[in-house]
Amino acid sequence: MLELGNGFAFVGRQYKIEVGESDYFLDLLFYHLQLRCFIIIELKACRFKPEFIGKLNFYLSAADAQLKRSDDNPSIGILLCRTKDKIEAEYALRDLNKPIGVSSFELSNIIPESLKSQLPSIEEMEKKLLGKNE
Predict the structure, then answer these.
(1) Mind listing the pLDDT tens digit of every residue in the chain (134 residues)?
(2) Which of 51, 69, 85, 116 is most buried, judging by how many CB atoms fall within 10 Å of its CB?
(3) Residue 134 within any structural domain of the chain
Protein backbone atom coordinates (compact mmCIF):
# COMPACT_ATOMS: atom_id res chain seq x y z
CA MET A 1 0.00 0.00 0.00
CA LEU A 2 2.81 2.42 0.80
CA GLU A 3 4.28 1.97 -2.67
CA LEU A 4 1.13 3.39 -4.24
CA GLY A 5 2.03 6.84 -2.94
CA ASN A 6 -0.05 9.61 -1.40
CA GLY A 7 -3.68 10.28 -2.14
CA PHE A 8 -5.01 6.72 -2.39
CA ALA A 9 -8.11 5.92 -0.35
CA PHE A 10 -8.96 2.21 -0.06
CA VAL A 11 -12.56 1.53 -1.09
CA GLY A 12 -12.65 -2.26 -1.10
CA ARG A 13 -11.25 -5.69 -1.95
CA GLN A 14 -13.36 -7.96 -4.14
CA TYR A 15 -15.65 -4.94 -4.57
CA LYS A 16 -18.96 -6.10 -6.03
CA ILE A 17 -20.51 -4.41 -9.05
CA GLU A 18 -23.66 -5.59 -10.77
CA VAL A 19 -23.99 -5.43 -14.53
CA GLY A 20 -27.24 -6.67 -15.98
CA GLU A 21 -28.07 -9.85 -14.12
CA SER A 22 -24.45 -10.71 -13.29
CA ASP A 23 -22.17 -9.89 -10.36
CA TYR A 24 -18.52 -8.98 -10.90
CA PHE A 25 -15.80 -8.43 -8.31
CA LEU A 26 -13.00 -5.88 -8.64
CA ASP A 27 -9.82 -7.19 -7.01
CA LEU A 28 -8.93 -3.82 -5.45
CA LEU A 29 -10.75 -0.51 -5.67
CA PHE A 30 -9.24 2.79 -4.60
CA TYR A 31 -10.20 6.42 -4.96
CA HIS A 32 -7.38 8.87 -5.64
CA LEU A 33 -8.01 12.13 -3.80
CA GLN A 34 -5.82 14.41 -5.95
CA LEU A 35 -6.71 12.85 -9.32
CA ARG A 36 -10.37 12.66 -8.26
CA CYS A 37 -10.96 9.28 -9.86
CA PHE A 38 -11.37 5.62 -9.04
CA ILE A 39 -8.39 3.30 -9.50
CA ILE A 40 -9.15 -0.35 -10.25
CA ILE A 41 -6.30 -2.80 -9.68
CA GLU A 42 -6.64 -6.30 -11.10
CA LEU A 43 -4.21 -8.93 -9.83
CA LYS A 44 -3.23 -11.93 -11.92
CA ALA A 45 -0.89 -14.55 -10.47
CA CYS A 46 -0.02 -15.70 -13.99
CA ARG A 47 1.51 -14.50 -17.23
CA PHE A 48 -0.22 -11.58 -19.00
CA LYS A 49 -2.94 -12.52 -21.47
CA PRO A 50 -4.45 -9.95 -23.87
CA GLU A 51 -7.99 -10.85 -22.77
CA PHE A 52 -7.21 -9.41 -19.31
CA ILE A 53 -7.33 -5.94 -20.91
CA GLY A 54 -10.87 -6.52 -22.18
CA LYS A 55 -12.02 -7.48 -18.71
CA LEU A 56 -10.36 -4.45 -17.11
CA ASN A 57 -11.82 -2.18 -19.81
CA PHE A 58 -15.26 -3.63 -18.98
CA TYR A 59 -14.70 -2.96 -15.27
CA LEU A 60 -13.67 0.65 -15.99
CA SER A 61 -16.82 1.24 -18.05
CA ALA A 62 -19.00 -0.24 -15.30
CA ALA A 63 -17.27 1.78 -12.57
CA ASP A 64 -17.63 5.01 -14.55
CA ALA A 65 -21.32 4.31 -15.15
CA GLN A 66 -22.13 3.23 -11.59
CA LEU A 67 -19.62 4.82 -9.21
CA LYS A 68 -18.24 7.96 -10.84
CA ARG A 69 -19.81 11.27 -9.87
CA SER A 70 -20.22 14.09 -12.37
CA ASP A 71 -17.19 15.96 -10.97
CA ASP A 72 -14.92 12.86 -10.99
CA ASN A 73 -12.43 12.08 -13.73
CA PRO A 74 -12.58 8.81 -15.67
CA SER A 75 -11.41 5.74 -13.75
CA ILE A 76 -7.92 4.33 -14.22
CA GLY A 77 -7.10 0.63 -14.52
CA ILE A 78 -3.91 -1.10 -13.40
CA LEU A 79 -3.27 -4.72 -14.28
CA LEU A 80 -0.56 -6.51 -12.28
CA CYS A 81 0.58 -9.87 -13.69
CA ARG A 82 3.27 -12.31 -12.64
CA THR A 83 5.06 -11.71 -15.97
CA LYS A 84 4.31 -9.94 -19.23
CA ASP A 85 5.54 -9.75 -22.78
CA LYS A 86 6.00 -6.07 -23.56
CA ILE A 87 4.91 -6.40 -27.20
CA GLU A 88 1.77 -8.39 -26.32
CA ALA A 89 0.82 -5.76 -23.73
CA GLU A 90 1.47 -2.95 -26.20
CA TYR A 91 -0.75 -4.55 -28.86
CA ALA A 92 -3.50 -5.27 -26.31
CA LEU A 93 -3.50 -1.62 -25.17
CA ARG A 94 -3.26 -0.08 -28.63
CA ASP A 95 -6.32 1.91 -29.73
CA LEU A 96 -7.97 1.80 -26.28
CA ASN A 97 -9.25 5.16 -25.10
CA LYS A 98 -9.25 4.34 -21.37
CA PRO A 99 -6.22 4.81 -19.11
CA ILE A 100 -4.93 1.29 -18.43
CA GLY A 101 -1.44 0.25 -17.37
CA VAL A 102 0.11 -3.22 -17.30
CA SER A 103 2.98 -4.21 -15.06
CA SER A 104 4.58 -7.35 -13.75
CA PHE A 105 5.40 -7.95 -10.11
CA GLU A 106 7.67 -10.10 -8.00
CA LEU A 107 6.60 -10.49 -4.39
CA SER A 108 9.85 -12.18 -3.34
CA ASN A 109 11.96 -9.11 -4.14
CA ILE A 110 10.13 -6.86 -1.68
CA ILE A 111 10.49 -9.16 1.33
CA PRO A 112 13.77 -8.90 3.28
CA GLU A 113 15.54 -12.25 3.86
CA SER A 114 15.32 -11.83 7.63
CA LEU A 115 11.50 -11.72 7.48
CA LYS A 116 10.78 -14.46 4.90
CA SER A 117 10.57 -17.26 7.47
CA GLN A 118 8.13 -15.24 9.59
CA LEU A 119 5.75 -14.35 6.77
CA PRO A 120 3.38 -16.42 4.61
CA SER A 121 4.78 -17.87 1.39
CA ILE A 122 4.36 -16.09 -1.93
CA GLU A 123 1.67 -18.59 -2.90
CA GLU A 124 -0.23 -17.96 0.35
CA MET A 125 -0.07 -14.19 -0.17
CA GLU A 126 -1.27 -14.52 -3.77
CA LYS A 127 -4.23 -16.60 -2.61
CA LYS A 128 -5.10 -13.94 -0.02
CA LEU A 129 -4.70 -11.08 -2.53
CA LEU A 130 -6.87 -12.85 -5.08
CA GLY A 131 -9.46 -13.87 -2.49
CA LYS A 132 -8.94 -17.62 -2.90
CA ASN A 133 -9.43 -19.41 0.40
CA GLU A 134 -8.79 -23.03 -0.53
Answers:
(1) 556 678 889 999 999 999 999 999 999 999 999 999 999 999 988 888 989 999 999 999 999 999 999 999 999 999 888 888 888 888 887 877 787 777 766 555 555 666 556 656 656 666 665 665 54
(2) 85
(3) no
Number of domains into which the chain is organized: 1
* Domain at 120, CATH number: 3.40.1350.10
Buried b (16+ CB within 10 A) or exposed e, 59-87: bbebbbeebbeeebeebbbbbbbbebeee
Domain around 31? 2-129
For residue 7, give the amino acid letter: G
Does residue 14 sit within a domain? Answer: yes
